[in-house]
Amino acid sequence: MKDDGSGAGLAHPARQGRWLDVDIQRQRLTLREGDRALAEFPVATAARGIGQQEGSFQTPTGWHYVRARIGEGVPLGAVFRGRRWTGEICDAALYASNPARDWILTRILWLCGLEPGHNRGGRVDSMRRYIYLHGCPDEVGIGEPASKGCIRLRNQDMLMLFDQVPAGSRVLIRQ
């Protein structure tokens, strides 16, 4: 299922139905139905760039799918640790108390790689690397690489996207 990420060949089986197209160069995520764009959101991918290796703090490329949807029903700004809601809601004061923290807020779409040896299995396994799409504090920059490997969205955008993306949806992360 390896893909060059060029956008060519929209008839690819993984591009059928509803899927997500993450363009690292543009720092944009597009929600698609087949080849039609339904919505587009600014994102922040890894500050350390693109990479597959465990411990690299880089954003992995290639085809993935949404393995788990976490946080349905929790409030906007809900703080997650270990994929569990802490009971906290991130506001300006909480963020100011620890601005360097890697905040995971609102909802989580946990990704699993589909390409053995590239983003699945061994030391390149996106799921074991805990690669997510997730919300972040409003104070955190979006639209430029800044994360520790995950794909960050504004909380409102994450909430909207979560409601549109079922488990099993395909995700292409490309340069």
From TrEMBL:
One of its GO terms (biological process) is peptidoglycan-protein cross-linking. The keyword Transferase applies. The keyword Secreted does not apply. It comes from the Bacteria. Residues 18-174 form the L,D-TPase catalytic domain. It holds the Pfam family YkuD. Pathway: Cell wall biogenesis; peptidoglycan biosynthesis. CDD domains: YkuD_like. The active site is at H134 (proton donor/acceptor), C150 (nucleophile). PROSITE patterns: LD_TPASE. GO terms for cellular component: extracellular region. Keywords: Cell shape, Cell wall biogenesis/degradation, Glycosyltransferase, Hydrolase, Lipoprotein, Peptidoglycan synthesis, Transferase. GO terms for molecular function: glycosyltransferase activity; peptidoglycan L,D-transpeptidase activity. Belongs to the YkuD family. This is Lipoprotein-anchoring transpeptidase ErfK/SrfK. It comes from Natronocella acetinitrilica.
